[in-house]
Task: structure prediction
Amino acid sequence: MSGLHRFDGGYQANTFDDLTECIKIFDQDRPLNQFSKVELVKGNICETAPNYIEENQQTLVRILSLTMNLYEPTKAALKAFLPRMAKGSIIMPFTLNSDLYPGMTLSILDELNIKDYQVKTMPSYPNVNYIVL
Result:
């Protein structure tokens, strides 16, 4: 496999409206739906993550799902959100240990002392890994 999206702009998509609609559907069928549970932030995570933390200093992160596959955006997310994660929080890297997308693993190695954590696998999904802090 050659990596269909491995070029500048290869992951660019405009899904904001679709995600907004999905959130509306999600909110229709949950308790206490008058309180927002999802917030979308549009933009480049390398810029938006530090700005978000600066503007929302009360933020704590319990689950950090990383699906960007690339080094710089993953590292930016980790730098911004790791200080806001308590013991027992979970990092879910989408392409950990991937030879097609090494950036995810390399950024985690740069930001975490991986020897201090266990990388676990979802029992029903052997390709899905997570790290418990």
